[in-house]
Amino acid sequence: MDSESKAGSDGDAVKTPAEPEISNRILTVPNVLSFFRLALVPVFLLYLVNGNDFVALVILVVSSLTDFLDGQIARRFNQVTRIGQLLDPAADRLYLLATLLGLASRDLVPWWLVIVIVSRDLLLIVLGITLANHGYGPLPVHHLGKVATFCLFYALPVLVLGQAFPDIQFVANPVGWAFAAWGAFLYWWAGIVYAIETVRVCRIPRGESV
Questions:
Q1: pLDDT tens by residue, 152-168
Q2: Residues 31, 37, 40, 41: what is their CA dihedral angle, to the nearest 10 degrees?
Q3: Where, by residue number, does the polypeptide cross the bilayer (predicted)?
């Protein structure tokens, strides 16, 4: 994608940094890594449910490494694709859900936490459909949502780490639960912000600026 030009105060064109080109390709190295991550989700869940916490933790680490690698490769070698932009967050959500379900099935986390996280994601799906029906794309990610996701993505692996290595549970469990509690709270706070913004946007008459 060519960089856009903006007129400067002296009339000369000012170049803005070029954005990475987004292609419709499917078979790229980053996408193969993303598919690999997705294929590991049921394997991870199976080991976690059966109490093989060390193996589950290794799979989680491998998944995190491939997540880092596919992003680096996509940006460095101009392999950013539309399907890749969908696969990455989908894999993240599935690992989050799999960890919740696996730990809840063993009574290591309460089912209410599963309901809190899943119901908020369902809310975002409904909001996304509502925006699409009004001709709008997804809302920009709010900083609260980023912080909440960060907390949850660190909380659950830390809890799995405590199960894999019982000797450090006295540290891992309090840290993991602190992240989980804050993450769940901020997750819904961000969800309410998205809901309010969706209502505001949908009330704007067609043709007016958002």
A1: 988 988 999 999 999 99
A2: -110
A3: 111-132, 144-165, 177-196
